[in-house]
Structure formats: structure tokens, C-alpha cells
């Protein structure tokens, strides 16, 4: 499904944000992408979403290669940004959900109406987006992205800024997607709400791959790379379900 081969990337006039990163992710698996600020997590997601091309190496997403097939990758990969305000374009919830949808002047398609109900947006359709809470904005971005049925869902810090109910709802979404066979890559600083939902982890440090593998192989070493392991792991209880 996802294959990254010796990928490097540098923003114009800056040092390399990624340096010789390689990883693979099979269909339907969930990958946790972690590392300190500036380690290259968001840059890697942007490359996998087809927003940039690697300056070295290559990658493929659902059979679409980069460099070369950015438009195809954008149709196959759905990116939910950490900052919802950078992703929301419409002036109201209805307008934002309608972007890219075939409405034909008859309101939202049934699939979008169902997503609006599922993510608690049905009563907010005519609400101005600047009046939404942070959690509501996150749900709007997620619903708009899932409407396009991506083969890969890329989530940049999906738990950031959410309250307890919001975190539980986001966890349920990730769990449902995983159960439904959707391939997911999720970045995080706090591993607690994510640990039991991830099949494999990739740890980046200064743009390079530092560790990769399941929890059992990396959690004892992850603190050496500026990432705190879950409290349950530190307490000798292994990976526990977050509640």
C-alpha cells in the first residue's frame, strides 16, 4: 500500500527536513509516526499526501508513485491537518462539506448527510465556521476528508487540543477505520490515546528514521529519541486500552 524508499526532502533555502527515510505499510494497517518537534513528521505526511515531491528517493501510495504522479496520489490519500483552520475553506459548515461534492442545488448528498450526523455536525450546517469549537472544526475536517473515500488516511496530531469526549470520539473513528480496513498514518506526541490502536511505529529524529517496529520492540528505547512511552508501559503493564 505505502512504500517509501530512501526519501529525502529539503524546503527551498533550508536544510533537509527528511534524510534517507524508508518504510513500508501494508493495506489496512495503522502506523504511528512519532518524534520531537522538527523531526519531519508533518513533512513526511505532506509528501505522502502528494503536496510535495521528494528531492531524493521515491515513494508510492496505493500504486501511485512520486515523483511523477502527484495528482493521482492526492486522489488516493486524504490528509487531515493538525491546524483545522488551515484546512477549512467554506464560510459555513454546509459550504465546506459541499466543496468537491456534487450537490446539484439539492442539498448535501446522502453520504455527506450521514457523515454530518455521525460527526455531530447535522445541527451545525448553517453555522459560520469561525463560531465552531476546536473539536467541531476537527470533526468537520475529518468528515470532509472521509467523504472522498481515501485509500489512505493521514492524520497530523488528531488528538491535539481535544477534550476528553473529543479524544474518545477520535479514538473510535480510528478504531472503526482500522476495523474497516482503511490504511492510516497518525502522528502524535502523546502516545497514551493511540498506543493500543497502532500496528507499527516509526520514530523520526532530525529527519532520519531512528526506530521502526511494533510496541514490543521500540517502547523500551523510545525515550532515547525524545518520545515518552505510555504510562502503562512504564508501569510494566504493557499496552493498555485508553479509557
Task: Walk me through the structure.
This protein has 8 helices and 10 strands. It is an alpha/beta fold. The mean pLDDT is 93. A 6-stranded mixed beta sheet has the order 6-7-8-3-9-10, sandwiched between helices. 28% of the residues lie in helices and 24% in strands.
Structure keywords:
243 residues, alpha/beta, six-stranded mixed β-sheet, four-stranded antiparallel β-sheet, 10 strands, 28% helix, globular
Question: What's a quick, concise take on this entry?
Answer:
By secondary structure, this protein is α/β, with parallel strands linked by helices. It has helices at residues 41-48, 70-76, 93-98, 110-118, 134-146, 164-179, 215-218, 231-234; strands at 2-10, 16-25, 30-34, 56-61, 64-66, 77-80, 152-155, 183-188, 200-205, 208-213.
Mean of the pLDDT scores?
93
Give me the number of helical elements. Answer: 8
What structural category do the secondary elements indicate?
alpha/beta
Gap from first CA to last CA: 31 Å
| Total beta strands | 10
Helix fraction?
25-40%
Strand content: 15-25%
Q: Which quaternary structure do these chains form? A: single chain
Task: Encode the helix/strand succession as letters.
Answer: EEEHEEHEHHHEHEEEHH
- Cα Rg: 18 Å
Low-confidence stretches: none
- Dominant shape: globular
Strand arrangement across the biggest beta sheet: 6-7-8-3-9-10
Biggest β-sheet description: 6 strands, mixed
Secondary structure layout plus pairing:
Blueprint: E1 2-10, E2 16-25, E3 30-34, H1 41-48, E4 56-61, E5 64-66, H2 70-76, E6 77-80, H3 93-98, H4 110-118, H5 134-146, E7 152-155, H6 164-179, E8 183-188, E9 200-205, E10 208-213, H7 215-218, H8 231-234
Parallel strand pairs: 3-8, 3-9, 6-7, 7-8
Antiparallel strand pairs: 1-2, 1-4, 4-5, 9-10
